[in-house]
Amino acid sequence: MNEPLPAPNILGALWRYRLSSLGIVVGTVLVSVVVALTVGSAGVAEARIVLKAPDSAQALGFEITSESGFVRYVNQRALFVTSDRTLGTARERLGGQETIKELREAVTARASDNGDSILVRVDIGDAERSTEIANAVVAAYQRESRAEVSAAADKALKALRNRREQLVADIAESGSGVDSASSRTISELDQRITEIRIASGQFGDGVSFVDKAVTDSSGVITALLRDAVVGFAVGVLLAATVAWARADRNRRVRDAADLARLSDEPLLGEVEALGEGETARLHNLVVPPLGSYRLVSSVLRNTVRGGLVAVTGVSAGDGATTTVLQVAGAAARDGLRVLVVDAAVRTRELSHNVALQNDWYGMAPIATGAATVHASTRVIEVGPGIEFRVIPAGRASEGAPDYFRSSLLRRAMVEARGGYDLVLVDLPPLESAPEVSALVPAADGVVLTVRKERSVAALRRARERIELLGGKIAGYVFTFASQSSPTGAQHNEQQGETQGRVSATTVHRGGQ
After folding, report:
1. According to the UniProt record, where is the region Disordered (predicted)?
2. Which of 124, 171, 322, 374 has its CA 20 to 30 A from that of 29?
3. Residue 5: which residues within 8 A CB-CB, separation 6 or more?
4. The predicted structure's pLDDT at residue 265
5. Continuous segment of H or E residues that includes residue 359
């Protein structure tokens, strides 16, 4: 069918690339926290100056007649906080470590949102030093403000006293005595002098109270948590995007339905993923084959009429060798004459499974003309009266595969198929063992095992390689499928059939 696969699922993509996705998320969170610590407010201190309303201190130079006037007054006082006069006094209190320029850059003052106070903020880079500077600036403001009020009061009092003295001198010079108008004027001046003294004393430095400078550690923690949460959200979004893009470029065969979409050849069977203990049973030839492999054996015999079947995987680890042994066991139990050939002369995995890994005879010497099929055939008994024959990989020196002769391989396969109902050839992935590629066109059909999550690109390369070699794909076996596969029920039934775990008996004898 070769239909395109549906777009990858985001959650599935994240799970497939979980390590890299986790790295992206953790990295984004760490960057967010580092940025928060670098440009955050960990070294900032804030103090508050609550001002008095100078309602009765008009003579002191302040005239507040409305709420907007008071707001303007607070803004003016905020500017006074950062004046050179105030900062110079603060610098003296601090011991002169910072210059006026440094203090001007570090200290800011503004009217609060409700307009009744001044917020002094200091960021010198160190929380403790920022606190010291903020408290020194507040104290300097109080001192300079008190001096300013005192100077304004003295100036007003001096003017009133001069006027009173001048009035008294004028009365004495005229010699007319103090009349009622002069007496009233002198009384008003005395009253005004008294009011200014009282007002200046009450107003003082113009500060109602002060909140000492503190660093907001809870605010820092809150900011860090907020930035970490934002970083986590951004990291998840970024990881999902990257994982989805990677999954879209590297499509995988997720289930048997995907495999059916990608190929025109039939799906011979679906083998579920097994636990570690259950997997060991697959290599014990005395244990009857898994139900899903029995199904593959039945379907295969109806699909390939000639009897010579090459089995290979898309990549190493796709279960080709296990499929050969399981199908061979199932066919032998059905009464068929079965021959198994281990053509993976480099790894000899099948030979290891039947305890023939040390046999000198086998495919390697056959391919170099040093042995015959008849001399290399061995009998494997898997039960009372049940057996199949094996041609092991044989022993070969290093570099021997380079001297394999394709004509000898093909001739051996023609000879092998003569006396058997089914010949199963275990081929390694062709990309890793090109020396056995001559067996592909010699086979009546090629069975390709495809592991779950195998790359679609790798599957297509394997198909193209088989077709270029002149082979015909007979079908696919989907391995390591989900446990919820329908074949899981068959496996559970199979577990109850036998509890024996004995090794297969290997009988070494030549011929058939």
Report:
1. 484-512
2. 124
3. 251, 258, 261, 262, 456
4. 92
5. none
Tell me which architecture the domain covering 254-481 has in CATH.
3-Layer(aba) Sandwich (3.40)
Lowest-confidence range among 56-60, 378-382, 464-468?
A: 56-60
Domain boundaries along the sequence of the chain: 10-40+221-250, 44-215, 254-481
Per-residue model confidence as pLDDT tens digits over 66-79: 777 788 888 888 99
Query: HSE of 174 in the Cβ direction (CA atoms, 13 Å)?
Result: 11
Distance CA(203)–CA(206), nearest Å, equals 5
Torsion of CA 453, 457, 458, 463, to 10 degrees: 120
pLDDT tens across 280-331, in order?
788 888 899 999 999 999 999 888 877 899 999 999 999 999 999 999 999 9
Mean pLDDT of 482-486: 58
Question: What is 277-324 written as a DSSP string?
Answer: HHHHHHT-TTSPPPHHHHHHHHHHHHH-SSSEEEEEESSTTSSHHHHH
Residues in the chain: 512
CB 160 within 8 Å of CB 192:
yes
Q: Say how far apart CA 150 and CA 157 lie, in whole Å.
A: 10
Lay out the sheet containing 107-111: strands in order across. 107-111, 117-123, 44-51, 207-214
Picking from 344, 334, 266, 345, the residue whose alpha carbon sits closest to that of residue 310 is 344
CATH code assigned to 44-215:
3.30.1890
Find, among 474, 452, 449, 479, the residue nearest to 462 by Cα. Answer: 449
Gap between the Cα atoms of 185 and 380, Å rounded: 137
